[in-house]
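cron nightly-structures :: item 1 of 1
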Amino acid sequence: MKASVILSLLFAVVSVASPTSNANKEELSWWTITTKGKVDAQNHWLSLKDGKVGGFAGARETPDKAGKFFTAVYPPTGTSQLLSGNWDHQLGLKVSTKGVMQLVDLGRGPTSAIIPKDAPNSIEWGVFQVGPSGEITVKDGADIPSRQWISWLDTDGVYYTGLWDGFTRQPRSFANITLVATKTEPLFT
C-alpha cells in the first residue's frame, strides 16, 4: 500500500512540475536522435515537424537533415528534459493508444493544465535519461520491466516512436527499437 501511495505521489510530481529551459547554454547537451532496430528499415533519424516528432521522409535518412535536440537537467527529479532545437518546445510522452505513450511535442512550457483530470498519468515530461552509450531511457517511477521503445509507420508516411508497456495488444504492427542520442554541435553558441 505504501509503495502504491509513494508511486502515485512521484507520478504527480513528475506530471505537475512545469519544465524549464532556463539552463545556461553551456549546461546543455546537444543530440541527434535515431531509432535502432534489428533491420535497417527500422533505423530513422527523428525530427520535429508541425508539432509532431517522427522519422519524416527527406529528414529520416541522414543525420545532416535530422532534427537537433538538447537535454537539460529537470530539477524536480534529476532526470533530463528533452527539448527541440528551437529551445522552447518540450518533448514528452503522451498516451496515444492503450499501452503506448507516444513521443510528442508538448509545445512551449507545458504545465499540469494540459493533463486530463480523469487521466493524471497520461502525459509526462522531464523523465528521460541518456546513458553513456547514448541510449535514451525513461525514469518515471513506473515499475514495468517489459516496457520498450517501438516504432510504427503511420498512414501519413511518418515513422512515429512510442514507449510500449510490453504486454498490451496493439491494433497496429510495430518494431521494437532502441532510441539512441548521438552528440552533435549546438545550433547556437
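cron nightly-structures :: done
The longest helix spans residues 2-16.
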